[in-house]
Specification:
Shape: flat
Protein name: WG repeat-containing protein
Number of helices: 2
Strand content: over 45%
Helix content: under 10%
InterPro entries: WG_beta_rep
Strand order of the largest sheet: 1-70-69-68
Radius of gyration: 38 Å
Oligomer: single chain
Distance between the termini: 33 Å
Number of strands: 70
Pfam families: WG_beta_rep (PF14903)
Keywords: Signal
Organism: Cohnella yongneupensis
Length: 673
């Protein structure tokens, strides 16, 4: 047997002969003697010798003799799964068998418990104690092994039950279904009937309901014999099942149906409004609901009061929350008015047409389709602009477009003409957004499009065939030149950022809409959302990396069959001269290679770190390099810390790196950097 001194001497001689440059930086701490190894973790490493896996410490001392078929990494409880003759067990860091290898499977620990399989499924704790003997066909772990109330779903003979963390069956596996617990309560199903249980497994209701809905305001709708009632959290029927349909309780009331009629009840079951409406559409945040009876519409509140008589031809809830009401006369003419979201009448139905409330204003018309005139009312129904315009549109950015004698102008919320009607308006010319958004609106003239600001100043003359709003206040513009569309870019001041000479400008990408690809003559470029041209359209392809729907990392570019990388400011990091490039957003380096050639490594500043190796793979901050079939290690700056003289090598972990020589693995240590 070699002594420690002779081992050290042999190691030093070997290193001095094989790789003199390495001798000053590394030395074998544990001699090459193993068939396979894993990296050190908390002072121990799994090694394979004579066909079996064992465990050593950082001095090379055997903690566990090589008697297992496999040893996994230690978990947060200090336990490692071991395999022997296809059976699984657990050991601790001292090598003690916490669980003898007798199981076909051991799952990961969750909340101190792990699933075991020995023909049937059971549970063990971190001490190795069998908490639930293997007797179940399945133990649920898809939604998490232990649910919010500390219970575990089990299955036996296609039936479900629940056990607690102590292994006690709180619900025998006799049920077809168990729901998730919400507020300490769950629903179980048996023979097509349901019941409510608590987290102790106690039945709060008999197994008698066709279905049980979720609780709302302390009550849950239940169905029995095709009738619906309500139970409380104790399982008591506070409202017997007698309705054909019912909603959840909101604001202490619920809508109920009986004999095809809808009414309103409170939480004690009192019918505030007996079922008499043909239907109700549900209450808004202010406690107002649209109702229908005999083909007429009205509004009720949660007290059941008809705050708008059931007399209207139609009532429509607008996005603003206002209710648009319609009256149809005997000669089939229609008139319109408004109730606010609280159910107060703010505008009598005296208008022949109305728009939607937006920014507290709504366009209204008096008169017919041909000779009618448009004005505006505010949220209180007050006429702010008398009907005098031929057309009017919704307010945006504090201004509303109005049309008179085919001229476009804009009014403000005080009813003043902020921009007098002066611009051409052609109804047949679609695609012109005359609404102000971000302080800019579109105008047209002779089927050409331009831009104005909120003072009415023309910031872009109508010279383009098309203008589209894109990201960050930018406008994509296009013109037909010699029969072909040319695309460019304007900013919100109307300044030309890119002349309309591109084949196309794509939409901005991702949630942050930070970049857009441009195209010209079959080539691609890149702009940012300020309109800055980061990359000229000279590339055959551009590929971006996304994380959480945002552009991250680097942008891959391609010319012909060669690739490179640029950063998010457009700076070239890796020249476009390689057959392949690789980068991941969580790394601070990029690799590139040529077919049959060496691998280059660049840092994030575009500095070439190395180009001397066949392959480079960074692991935990260390670069595993190979050249001529030999492996070594470099730092992220390219400094060689282990010369490539080994058959294989792993990254440093806890000061040691596994290295392979003459078919055997050992561990080297860094003497200095």
């Amino acid at each position: 047997m070699k002594t420690a001194a002779s081992i050290a001497l042999t190691s030093a001689l070997f290193l001095s002969m094989a790789a003199p440059a390495q001798a000053a930086t590394t030395s074998f701490a544990i001699q090459p003697q193993y068939e396979e190894v894993r990296s050190f973790d908390s002072g121990t490493a799994a090694v394979k010798s004579d066909g079996g896996w064992g465990l050593i410490d950082k001095t090379g001392k055997l903690i566990v003799s090589p008697r297992y078929d496999d040893i996994e990494r230690f978990n947060e409880h200090g336990l490692a799964e071991v395999v022997k003759d296809e059976k699984h067990g657990l050991i601790d860091r001292t090598g003690k068998e916490i669980v003898v290898p007798v199981y076909s499977y051991i799952g990961d620990f969750e909340n101190g418990l792990a699933i075991i399989l020995d023909n049937k499924y059971g549970l063990i704790d971190v001490t190795g104690k069998v908490v639930v003997a293997p007797k179940y066909d399945r133990i649920e772990d898809k939604r998490g092994l232990v649910n919010d109330v500390g219970l575990i779903e089990v299955e036996l003979n296609d039936k479900y039950g629940l056990v607690n963390k102590a292994g006690v069956e709180v619900l025998k596996p006799e049920f077809d279904y168990t729901s998730d617990f919400v507020g300490g309560l769950a629903v179980v199903k048996q023979n097509a009937k349901m019941a409510l249980i608590d987290k102790s497994g106690k039945f709060l209701t008999p197994v008698a309901y066709d279905w049980i809905d979720n609780f709302s305001e302390g009550l849950a709708a239940v169905s029995k014999n095709k009738k619906i009632g309500y139970i409380n959290a104790s399982g008591k029927e506070v409202i017997p099942p007698k309705y054909d349909d019912a909603t959840k309780f909101v604001g202490s009331t619920a809508l109920v149906d009986r004999a095809d009629k809808t009414g309103l009840i409170n939480k004690s079951g009192k019918e505030i409004v007996p079922p008499k409406y043909d239907y109700a559409l549900g209450f808004n945040d202010s406690g107002v609901s649209i109702v229908n009876k005999g083909g007429k519409y009205g509004l009720i509140n949660r007290t059941g009061k008809e705050i708008a008589a059931v007399q209207y031809y139609n009532i429509e809830k607008q996005e603003s929350g206002f209710f648009k009401v319609t009256v149809r006369s005997s000669d089939n003419n229609y008139s319109y008015g408004f109730y606010n979201k609280s159910g107060m009448l703010v505008a009598k139905p005296v208008y022949s047409s109305v728009g939607a409330f937006n920014e507290g204003m709504a366009a209204v018309r008096k008169g017919g389709d041909k000779d009618g005139k448009w004005g505006f009312i505010d949220a209180a129904g007050k006429v702010i602009v008398q009907p005098k315009y031929d057309e009017a549109f919704d307010f945006r950015d504090g201004l509303a477009p109005v049309i008179t004698k085919n001229k476009l102008g804009y009014i403000n919320k005080q009813g003043k003409e902020a921009i007098k009607p002066q611009f051409e308006y052609d109804r047949s010319f679609s695609g012109v957004d005359i609404q102000f958004r971000g302080g800019v609106a579109m105008i047209s003239k002779s089927h050409k499009v331009g831009l104005i600001d909120k003072t009415g100043k023309v910031i872009t003359k109508p010279a383009y065939d098309r203008i589209d709003r894109i990201a960050n206040g930018l406008f994509r513009v296009s013109s037909v030149i010699s029969g072909n569309w040319g695309w460019g870019l304007l900013n919100a001041k109307g300044q030309v950022l890119i002349k309309p000479e591109l084949s196309y400008v794509q939409e901005f990408m991702g949630k942050d809409q930070r970049f857009a690809i441009t195209e010209k003559a079959g080539k691609k470029g890149l702009i940012d959302n300020t309109g800055k041209q980061l990359l000229l359209p000279i590339y055959d392809d551009i590929d971006v990396e996304f994380k959480d729907e945002k552009v991250v990392g680097f942008i891959q570019v391609k010319k012909g069959n060669q690739f490179g990388l640029v950063n998010l400011t457009g700076k070239v990091i890796v020249p476009v001269v390689y057959d392949s490039v690789n980068h991941w957003s969580f790394d601070d380096y990029a690799t590139a290679g040529t077919n049959g050639g060496k691998t280059a490594v660049y840092n994030l500043n575009g500095v070439l770190i190395t180009k001397d190796y066949d392959s480079v793979n960074f692991v935990d901050g260390w670069g595993i390099v190979t050249t001529g079939g030999k492996s070594g290690i470099i730092t992220k700056t390219g400094k060689v810390v282990v010369e490539p003289v080994y058959e294989d090598i792993q990254s440093f972990s806890e000061g040691l790196a596994a290295a392979k020589i003459d078919g055997k693995w050992g561990y080297i240590t860094l003497l200095k950097l």
